[in-house]
Hints:
Oligomer: heterodimer
Structural class of chain A: alpha/beta
Largest sheet of chain A: 5 strands, parallel
Strand content of chain B: under 5%
Strand content of chain A: 5-15%
Low-confidence stretches of chain B: none
CATH class of chain A: Alpha Beta
Number of strands of chain A: 9
Strand order of the largest sheet of chain A: 2-1-3-8-9
Radius of gyration of chain A: 27 Å
Mean pLDDT of chain A: 89
Shape of chain B: globular
CATH architecture of chain A: 3-Layer(aba) Sandwich
Low-confidence stretches of chain A: 1-8
Radius of gyration of chain B: 25 Å
Number of domains of chain B: 2
Amino acid sequence: MNLLSSSTSNFDRSPPSPVQRAVVVVLWTLLFLVVIDVAVGRLFAAPPAGVEPGPLQRRFAAGRSVEGKLARMVRETDESSAPMAAAGWYGSRRDQPTRAEHPGGLFVAAYGMSTSFRVCYAMQELEPTLTLRLVGGPNAPLSHSYDGYLKDRTRHDADVVLLGVSAWALAGLESMTQMLIHFDAPAPYTYPVYRISDGELVATTPLVQSLEELRRAMGDPERWEAFRRQLAEHDAYYDELVFRGGPLDESTLVRLLRRGWGQRQKRRQLAQVHDANGYRSDSTVGPVARAIIRSFAETVRADGRLPIVILFHEKGFDDHLYTLLAPTLREHEIPFLSTHELAPASDHDSFMPDGHFTAEVDKRIAREVLAVISSAH
Amino acid sequence: MLFNSLHFLLFLPVVLGAYAMLRHRGQNRMLLIASYVFYGWWDERFLFLIALSTVVDYWCGLTIGRGRLTGRQRLVASSWLALSALCFVTINWSAVRLGGPEGIGVDWSTLIDPLGGWALCGALGLVAIANLFHGLVSRLDEDRRRKIGLCTSIVVNLTVLGVFKYFNFFVGSAEDALQGLGFDAQLLRLDIVLPVGISFYTFQTMCYTIDVYRGKLPPTARFLDFALYVAYFPQLVAGPIERPNELLPRLQNPRHFELAQIQRGLYLILLGLFKKVAIADGVAASVYSIYNSTGTVGGLDVAAATLLFCVQVYCDFSGYSDIARGVSKLLGIDLVTNFRAPFFSRSPAEFWQRWHISLSTWLRDYLFMPLVFLDPRRRIYLALMITMLVGGLWHGASWNFVLWGGFHGLLLVVHAVYRDRWPAPDPRAVRRWRVVAGIALFFAINWYSFLLFRAGSFAQIFDFTTALATGAGGMHLSMKLPALSAMLGIPLLLGLDLLEYATGDALAYRRVPAWARGALYAFLIFVIIMGTGNEPTEFIYFQF
């Protein structure tokens, strides 16, 4: 008897079947997915509070739920919270002048977003005696600017009241907070949603209106649930999957999937408002925007001031905002300026990588605004 | 319905589930319904054109091959066309509302589309004429009857293609030419939507009648099999363009399933999604930021955007082909390979053996060869040029596509002349550095051709070419950066294509150990998930 041969045959294994081989590959795939999930999560973990995250850290955290992001951004005090958490709330810009700082100089109160403030600073460069009062928030839609103006109108004696309207942010008229429409990198500030009822503008005011109130709501489940329900009812960009937090926030792959889902939902909602031809006529955004502009001009004039509207056309918006609002502005003889003629939205040279106009374009627009003010005065 | 949409994600399992439960004939009927749902998802009116093409070519095929249709065959084909006209263009389905307090609500005033009514009359007229003349045609001598069948098929298909794709283009060009001569011309334009993928299925159905005419295959007697051949959803809207002698037998015979085929199908779907979602959509915004800018664009921006467009169009189109082949493999039906690492080509001739293979072989067999056939020596260069000009125009109703086709035609002619004088050396004797240099040189030439392909106007071609040649507009890079998924995906894709090129085997990835395959699949899934955040763009070749 050949022991060696016998022993070998005992240890002989038949080659794995195709099904077994497929199962092994699937198991390896799952194992590597777990490894990638954990490794990317560790490598690009959020930095400690107070440290600005890098682009990749921001990229891999973008799909964290809104609740998850808020929990990281909003801490016990304003100082320990992320700077973005404080942006955009009314009154967050302190030490704003209430009267002209230079005798005989012009005093402009501006409501809008960073694009309009950059133009205001350029105006100040061209006209050093200009005094500026700036109220706004990052990517602020018209509803936020208008709400800021209403809250602010009795607190200064500006000669000119400037309203900056962003084509890109106009869709935000259907939202209540930047937490949802810009959930990638949210600023949690809130603002009313307007609708037209019997020809009148009617506002639904958010239950949370300051960082302090947000902090309190986050610590009180009942209040938080009420705020969440209000968002679900009134904010067109609310999505349960994007909003609700949980342990899955810790998974890189889930965060990436949630970001994809959130982007998809956002695009679907934006497509209801705007397409390649302009703002859709069947959307409520146009009528609400026109009503806000009319109301803004009436109240500014009633206060004895000069209203000015700047229509900012970002990349991809051609002259769409102008087409939507110019007839109303002309009808009510509201001085206005549209950037599409000064800096075409299709000219990539007009824009910086972050989407703002270049300094040269800001100055060009500022010069025109000053000319409009001087001719209207 | 897009392959990379949630709708398709739900559609495919339903189709596969139903497919698994049915026998062969039931599978084909179900696939036909699924294909019509898939295509009608864009616009149900497009389905009438598919039905028209199906009925005409089915009829012509039998007329050419057998001389006549049986009464039942005529009845089925006639009913199909009439019902299609009624259901897809005459009834305006948006007038029917589901849900609400009444359950189903109908707006009777808009239920019938007036234009659709004309289409229905036209379809009934066509059916009547075809049935009326059927006996007459079947009694003609064979040669005349076959020619009538072939000509009818070609005329109908090219008319449909011409009206829906090229009419406004030629009218617009004529207007421009007349205005250039000082005439104030305002010619009639049609307010029509270009049906998705019309060039693909028109070419596919035309080659069926041509092959029947040439005696390469018998005509299909079963109408539903032929209707499925025309409308088979995996490859309907963007190819690969299948040959009837390949696809029809696969549809007519029962399918057999093997695990390897399912594995390969799943891998192809994964690879296609990776190319489309992670890479093509990830670079689309970068290309757009330069090619859709009205401002001054610098040479470096043009160079970078054109390079990324090469990547975009390759990933977009080959990604679609991969998904199409993968889905079809899950159904047990193989489709032809459409791309084989095309950017590793060293000559224009090799490029067209690697890029959009189903179109280049179609053009070779049905256009180039007949053109060359009569007088090979004198006609070969002219035939090359004509073939590529038609190929360019096939891509889109725009002069820049004609220019692109002409550019490739010129490259092929120059290459053919060169090879006539200096025949290609034995590939085994060519040194590696010469291979690399050849690939790099041809890529640089081909890269410029993609500028012609992507440009929106002749003025842009001129401006961008000037910027490339002179560096005008500055050499700073202001192009929007590609998405992270694309930056991670491009090196991996390059590696996979290099592996395929070096081994000459598209299945080379399967030779690596199980753990390495697991790592590859996991990374592909990871990058696809990352790419879901990219703005999805429609597949570029849908417009063709």
